[in-house]
Amino acid sequence: MKRNPSQLRAIIHLSGPMMVLAGPGSGKTSVIVERTAYMIKEGKIPASSILVVTFSRAAAIEMKERFLKFVDQERSDVTFGTFHGIFYGILKAAYNLSAANILSEEEKYSILREMTEQYGQEMSQEGDFLEEISKEISIVKGNCISLEHYYASCCSDEVFREIFTGYKNALRARRKLDFDDMILSCYELFDKRPDILNGWRKKFVHILVDEFQDINSLQYKILRMLAAPADNLFIVGDDDQSIYHFRGARPEIMLNFTRDYPKAQTVLLDVNYRCSGSILRTAMKVIGCNSRRFKKALTTPNEEGMPVTCKAFENPREEYICVVAALKKRLEKGENLENTAILLRTNQEGEGLVNALMEYQVPFTMKEQLPNLFRHWICRNLQAYLHMAAGDRSRKNFLEMMNRPNRYISRDALPDKQISFDRLREYYKDKDWMCDRITTLETHLRILGTLSPFAAINFIRKGMGYEEYLREYAQYRKIKPEELLETLDRIHESTKGMKDLEQWERYIEEYTEKLNEQARKQQNRKEGVTVSTLHAVKGLEFDIVYILNVNEGSIPYRKAVLEEAVEEERRLFYVGMTRARKKLVLAYVKRQYEKEREPSRFLEETGL
Predict the structure, then answer these.
(1) Rounded CA gap, 246 and 578, in Å?
(2) How many CB atoms lie within 10 A of CB 269?
(3) Using one digit for the tens of pLDDT, what is the confidence trace for 199-213?
(4) What are 139-184's pLDDT values in tens digits?
(5) Phi, psi of 18, rounded to the nearest 5 degrees
(6) Per-chain mean pLDDT for the chain
(7) Are residues 408 and 446 in the same domain?
(8) In 362-441, at which residue ranges do the beta strands (DSSP E only) sit?
(9) Which residues of this UniProt protein bind ATP (predicted)?
C-alpha cells in the first residue's frame, strides 16, 4: 500500500524520541509494523533489541502476526507484548517468579468479597461493588497515590482504606502479586537495582508503544527508566481516544510528552481512511469542543457519503423496535448484518434492545455479556417482599427486606428458620416503638398480598419508604441516586401486565434462560449485528453504526460532573462515531419511565 508523507516520516524514523498522533482509521498499526521492519532491514538494528508494547494480549498477538506476515517470516526476535507480560518477564528473571505467584481473577474477587463482607457490610450483596473497588485499588496503585490522600468514589474513605489494607495484607500472606503489583514491583526493582535496569536497557534499545493515550503514571515511569539514556522511545496514540480514566489512564501524560522529551519529533497521521467525509466532519465538530487536546484537522480521501442522521423517538421501546425492524428487513433481503453495530453507553441499557432482537429473531453478537437485571440486589429485595406478602415466612427472605428501609430489627431477634411476627413483638415487648414498627410491617405485607406485582412494587417504593432507603444508600455509597432508581424503574417496568408473582418469576426464568442461551451461542459462533458498549468497540470498524440513547444522563453519563469527566465522555462519543465507515445514525428518546429526557448536549455540537 502506498504510504502518505506523514506515515513515511514515522516509518523511517530510526532513533531518538518521537510522538505519532494517530487519528482514527489513520493506519497506525501499519506504521508500527512497517517501522519495525524498516529498523531491522534498513537501519540494521538487531531484531532482539526491539520491544513493541501495547495494552491487551489480543492487540499484541495481532501486531506480531501482522509483522510476521509483512516480513514474510515464521518467527522473529522482536519482542511483542503487553505491559503486564513484559514486566512479569522482568520480575520472573529477577525473583524466579512463577505463574503460582500471580493472583488469578477468581482469587482476587474472592479476597475482595471477604474484605467487603468484613468492612462494607451490605455492599457485599452488590455484584458491581467488587468491580468498582477493584478499579479503585488499581488507580491507587497505578498512580502511586498515598492512601491518606485518596478520596474513594464508590464508598466511604474509611471503608475503602480498610478494604484496601485488608486486600494488601491477604496478598502478602499468600505471597501473591496482582497485575498492579507486577508494575509496582518492577518499578521498585529498577529503582533499587541499577545493575538489573542496565541489563534490560541493553536488551531493549528501541521501544515502540501503541495506544499510548491509555498509559498510567507508573507504566510511564518504568518506560522512561527503561528508555534512558538513549531515549529511543516511539509512542503512537490519539489523545482524542483516551477513554480509560477508570483504569487509571491519564491523557495528560501524552499531552506533556514533548515537555518531558523536548527533542521529540512529532508526526500527525491526519488522513482518515475509514470514515466518509460527512461522518468525519461531524465527529471532528464534536471533539473540537474539548479544550484539553492537541488541535488537529483530519481529512479523508473517501467520498462525502450519506449525511449523518439524528432521530428522535418517544421512548426506548420505540427506538429499539424501529432499529430492529430495519435490520429485519435487511435480513429478509438476504443482506449480511455483520457489517453493522449498535452502540450503547452502558451494558445495562442493552436489555430492552436484546429483548427486541430476540422478539424479531434478528441474530446478534454481544461484545460483553449482558448483566442480568434480575440478579441485581434490588430485585432480590423486591422479590423477598412479594414472597413475604404471599405468606412465605422464611428467615432468608425476611433478612433480605427487614431493614430496607431500616426498621432496626436485629438478627438476634430471629433465632428460628421461620419468622413469627408474634415472637418478634415478644422479643421487643419492652420497646413499644419497635412493636409498632413490626405491626406496621405486618399490615403492609397484608396489603401487598392483595395487589398485582406492579401495584405492589409501587406501594413498596412510595408507601413503605424503599425509594427513600435507596437515596440514603446511594449517598453512603457515593453514587448518584438516579443509578439505583433507574434499576428500580427497569425492574418495576418488567412487572407491567403480570397478574401475580408466579407469572413474573416465570418471565424472569425464561428471560434468564434466553440470556444464557445467547451467551452459549456466541461462544460457538459470532453472527449478525454487533451489540456493544462504546468502550468495548474501540479499535473496531463497521459500515453502519447506530448510537442509541444519546441523551443527557446516558451520553454524557450521569456520573460525569467535572469538566474533565465530560471531556472524556465526549471522547467516548467521538470513538463511537468514528467506528462508522459509511452510515452513522444517532438516536435519542423523549421519555423514559414516565419521565422526560433531554437530548445530549453533544448532539447540538454535531451541528445536525
Answers:
(1) 22
(2) 26
(3) 999 999 999 999 999
(4) 888 777 888 888 887 788 888 899 999 999 999 999 899 988 888 8
(5) -145, 140
(6) 92
(7) yes
(8) 364-366
(9) 22-29
Cell of 578: 468514528
**Band of residue 53 on the pLDDT scale cut at 50, 70, 90:** very high
Separation between Cα atoms, residue 147 and residue 135, nearest integer Å: 15
Average pLDDT of span 514-521: 80
Count each helix (H run) and each strand (E run) in the chain, helices first.
25, 14
More confident residue, 603 or 245: 603
Question: For residue 489, which amino acid is it?
Answer: D
Q: Tens digit of pLDDT for each residue in 174-197?
A: 989 998 888 889 999 999 999 999
Ligand-binding annotation for 25, yes or no, is: yes
Buried b (16+ CB within 10 A) or exposed e, 540-566: ebbebbbbbbbbbbbbbbeebeeeeeb
Task: Say if residue 363 carries a ligand binding annotation.
Answer: no
pLDDT digits (tens, 9 = 90+) for 371-391: 788 988 999 999 999 999 999
Domain enclosing residue 347, as ranges: 309-363+527-606
Say which residues have a Cβ less than 8 Å from residue 601's Cβ, sequence separation at least 6. 552, 556
Q: Taking a C-beta distance cutoff of 8 angstroms, is the pair 254, 588 a contact?
A: no
Shared domain check, 139 and 58: no
Q: Say if residue 59 carries a ligand binding annotation.
A: no
Location of C-alpha cell 492537541: 294
Dihedral, CA atoms, 428, 434, 435, 440, nearest 10 degrees? -150
- CATH number of the domain bearing residue 348: 3.40.50.300
Residue 465 DSSP one-character state = S
Q: Where are the beta strands (DSSP E) in 210-356?
A: 233-237, 265-269, 309-313, 340-344
Residue 22, marked binder:
yes
Q: DSSP H helical segments within 143-178, as ranges? A: 157-174
| Residue 11 sits in the same domain as residue 56 | yes
Whole-number Å distance between alpha carbons of 486 and 493: 10
pTM here is 0.84
Alpha-carbon gap, residue 82 to 84, rounded angstroms: 5
Is residue 28 part of an annotated ligand binding site? yes
The total number of structural domains in the chain stands at 4
Residue 30 in marked binding region = no
